[in-house]
Design goal:
The complex is a heterodimer of chains A (335) and B (398).
Chain A: E1 19-24, E2 27-32, H1 48-57, E3 60-65, E4 71-72, E5 79-80, E6 86-93, E7 96-99, E8 105-106, E9 119-126, E10 133-137, E11 154-159, E12 170-174, H2 180-184, H3 208-230, H4 232-237, E13 242-248, E14 253-259, E15 262-266, E16 275-278, H5 283-289, H6 295-300, E17 305-306, H7 312-334
Parallel strand pairs in A: 13-16
Antiparallel strand pairs in A: 1-2, 3-4, 3-6, 5-6, 7-9, 7-11, 8-9, 9-10, 11-12, 13-14, 14-15, 16-17
Chain B: E1 5-12, H1 24-39, E2 48-52, H2 56-59, H3 68-71, E3 79-82, H4 88-101, E4 107-115, H5 128-136, H6 151-165, H7 172-185, H8 201-206, E5 209-212, E6 214-215, E7 224-233, H9 234-244, E8 249-258, H10 274-287, H11 292-295, E9 298-300, H12 306-315, H13 326-329, E10 340-341, H14 346-349, H15 354-372, E11 376-383, E12 389-397
């Protein structure tokens, strides 16, 4: 959970300088790879003390109106707009506070946040403040699911080990996951937390019935995969994407191959897969591919385990694959 | 005394996931041509143009409207661009209305466009993460952008805060039913991005989480397209109407509000969408509406998210806050109910070509008024972080 981006634009985001043709109704249309970038030497101005206090002193600052006394965190004004612009003064606030409301959880992140999803982002009123600070939220217990952090949940500001002077230098975790010493400590850093490591689930020995369910599910998944590969719309869901996935279930193990529109399932143990999926009941995955419940939700609800959180991206593509096939069938029926 | 302003022509291009065949130049020309044809006037009869284009990055230029002046034949005439987040289209119509009402111009073209899905993420080889990223540049640049702010998670904040206050409202089976109903309504809209994507409530409930509590089929779809509306002052409007044979649909109420973007004491009304409430109240006051549920027949609401649609309906006074589910439970917006809500399929199914979206909604609202004999309609736009911006227009048959 460290942030180690060294360039303001990560190299892997930059496409090659080239174009391609797409043909529609016999006519060729050009698509050009392009970028729209600008670099900044950004003025932090009057906000500098807030960010410097986080970076260098692991302190949280707010601004207090000299007239009405309201304490705003973050300190985004030097004069109070509610008091005819009376001056404010910087004050330190506590590093524990309560959630103003239940925070949303982002599962489908944009490209810049793929390595951080799933994450919560919500508003915390730190003790001593009157207004809310927008913060990223994590749990130390694995994937953040609804119910862990709610309105009024007490949370603690955690400082990243490597701080650069931006709002990303901090995030919050529930105090319920911390020791009393950690809660009391000012400037608690992420390396001082006990992060629960992802651990592949172990399944009990399979019964004959489990093996039969596995065999049947595998057969159905293979048929679906063939159908998906034939579907023009479904192929779009995995266009340009390549992954070899080892899938482990109670009744047996198989391989799932995604290769630029092609989708294939084989009964095989992969030696070096891109990542591993594990679900006790293979029907969890079968239902997802049949568009009877999202695979994403199976991960969230811990019915399906993935070895890399980053691979949520692939999970979304599998959900889209199922939806696109279902949609193509419906559209054909409607027309 | 402000002059009376009416809509005399309107058009939309088809909304699509991506228009490979057309740049935003041609999309705007298509919408302009069709709107002029609808009004049976020439571009020479138009005094000024108001462009609604939300995001410079989508069009990949910082003054995206400048080439359009020549593309649509409006050179040497006044042109302004309005950009107000998701509410861009509604605010653009409001600006055009003000120009005409204030006697600056007699006929103004309102032209919205967006080419959103040219943005492309080469790491996931799909457009959506990059579109979300671009919209992510709209978040607060000091405190929120870098911690993953998105349109979805900021609207989800508002929705969850509302649900904290009203835990029994916005039930999953109701949001699913509304999405399903919109997917049925879109069937009659040939310009829609998802005209043939009918879904059941079960499919909605089974769709994946994008941002908790929003599921995939409860979120509008970004797309590309253009829409145009032509507004004119009273006498000119009547003359145009006589010639075109299409009745004038008058804009009798306009209201807007932009809230505080920070939360806490003395700041944003957390758990409310006060901008939508204030915008509606101002529009109702101008139009003389006392009881919106009894006096309005059709609503074209900016449904960025189904949950927000429900809250907005409550904020605009159609149902009480905390009882938004009665929209369905008491049959208010179900087929045959008191209100027609998003007959075009809404932004969920027609598509969300941001700058064009609210103008498309006005196009649809006018069509409904003219074709179904409705007396009054409401067009709504929302935008910016945490539903910060709200704009409402009231349209009336003469």
């Amino acid at each position: 959970m460290t942030q180690g981006k060294e360039k303001v634009i990560p190299f892997e985001f930059i496409p090659d300088k080239e174009g391609r043709i797409t043909t529609i109704n016999g006519k060729d249309y050009l698509l050009m790879n392009d970028a729209f970038y600008t670099f900044f030497e950004r003025t932090m101005g009057e906000l500098s003390p807030f960010f410097l206090a986080i970076r260098d002193e692991k302190r949280m600052l707010g601004c207090k109106c000299t007239k009405c006394g309201i304490v705003r965190v973050p300190p985004f004004v030097t004069r109070c707009p509610d008091c005819n612009f009376a001056p404010t003064e910087l004050v330190e606030v506590e590093q524990v506070g309560k959630m103003l409301s239940t925070p949303p959880i982002t599962y489908f992140a944009n490209a810049l946040f793929l390595d951080k999803a799933p994450f919560g982002r919500g508003r915390v009123i730190l003790n001593g403040a009157d207004t809310a600070l927008s913060v990223m939220l994590y749990t130390t217990t694995g994937i953040l699911v609804p119910g862990i952090i709610k309105k009024d949940t007490e949370v603690k500001v955690i400082f990243r080990d490597k701080r650069v002077g931006e709002i990303t230098d901090i995030y919050c975790v529930p105090t319920a996951e911390l020791t009393p010493e950690q809660i009391a400590k000012k400037g608690l850093q992420e390396s001082e937390l006990n992060w629960e490591a992802p651990k592949e689930p172990e399944f009990p020995k399979a019964s004959d019935e489990d093996i039969a369910v596995y065999k049947q599910s595998l057969k159905e998944m293979q048929a679906l995969a063939a159908e998906m590969t034939r579907s023009k719309r479904a192929r779009k869901a995995i266009e340009g994407w390549k992954r070899d996935i080892a899938v482990k279930t109670k009744g047996g193990e198989f391989a799932m191959y995604i290769d630029d529109g092609d989708f294939r399932i084989e009964e095989k143990k992969l030696e070096s897969p891109d990542f591993v999926m594990a679900c006790e009941d293979p029907r969890t995955l079968l239902d997802g591919l049949m568009y009877k419940g999202a695979i994403t939700d199976s991960v969230i609800m811990k019915k399906l385990w993935i070895s890399e959180n980053m691979e949520f991206n692939t999970i979304f593509k599998l959900d889209r694959l199922a939806r696109f096939l279902a949609r193509e069938k419906k559209e054909q029926a409607a027309k | 005394m402000a002059r009376k302003v009416g809509i005399v022509g309107a058009a939309a291009t088809p909304f699509r996931g991506k228009w490979y065949e057309k740049s935003y130049y041609e999309l705007t020309q298509m919408a302009t041509r069709e709107a002029l044809k609808d009004a049976a006037i020439s571009v020479k009869d138009v005094d000024a143009v108001a462009y609604g284009i939300y995001n410079d990055i989508f069009e990949r230029t910082c003054i995206p409207e400048h080439p359009l002046q020549g593309v649509i034949g409006m050179h040497n005439k006044p042109g302004i661009r309005v950009t107000n987040g998701g509410a861009t289209g509604a605010y653009t119509m409001s600006a055009a209305h003000a120009y005409v009402a204030a006697e600056r111009y007699n006929v103004v073209l309102v032209l919205g466009v967006e080419k959103a899905t040219d943005c492309f993420d080469f790491t996931s080889m799909s457009a959506t993460p990059e579109v979300i990223k671009v919209i992510g540049w709209s978040g607060d640049s000091f405190f929120e952008q870098k911690i993953g702010w998105t349109a979805s998670d900021s609207y989800a904040e508002v929705v969850l805060a509302y649900m904290d206050e009203h835990p029994g409202d916005l039930k999953p089976e109701i949001t699913a039913q509304i999405s399903s109903q919109l997917s049925q309504q879109v069937k009659t809209n040939p310009y829609a991005q998802r005209q043939f994507d009918q879904v059941t409530p079960e499919e909605v409930m089974n769709s994946r989480y994008i941002v908790y509590p929003f599921k995939e089929l409860e979120i509008c779809v970004y797309g590309e397209g253009a829409a145009a509306v032509i507004v004119a002052e009273e006498e000119t409007a009547k003359a145009i109407s006589k010639n075109s044979g299409k009745p004038v649909v008058w804009i009798t109420g306009v209201g807007e509000a932009n809230e505080h973007s920070f939360a806490g004491k003395n700041q944003n009304h957390w758990g409310r969408i006060y901008s939508h409430h204030m915008a509606a109240q101002r529009a109702y006051q101008m139009a003389g509406i006392k009881n919106p549920l009894e006096e309005i027949d059709v609503v074209e609401l900016h449904d960025a998210f189904i949950h927000q649609l429900e809250i907005t309906m409550a904020e605009m006074g159609f149902v009480p806050l905390g009882r938004a589910d009665t929209l369905i439970e008491e049959g208010i917006m179900t087929p045959g109910g008191k209100l027609s809500v998003n007959p075009c399929g809404g932004l969920l199914y027609c598509g969300h070509a941001v700058g064009a979206s609210n103008i498309m909604s006005a196009w649809s609202c006018r069509n409904e008024i003219l074709n179904k004999g409705y007396r009054r309609g409401l067009v709504h736009g929302t935008g910016s972080t945490i539903c910060q911006y709200g704009a409402v227009l009231i349209l009336e048959h003469e």
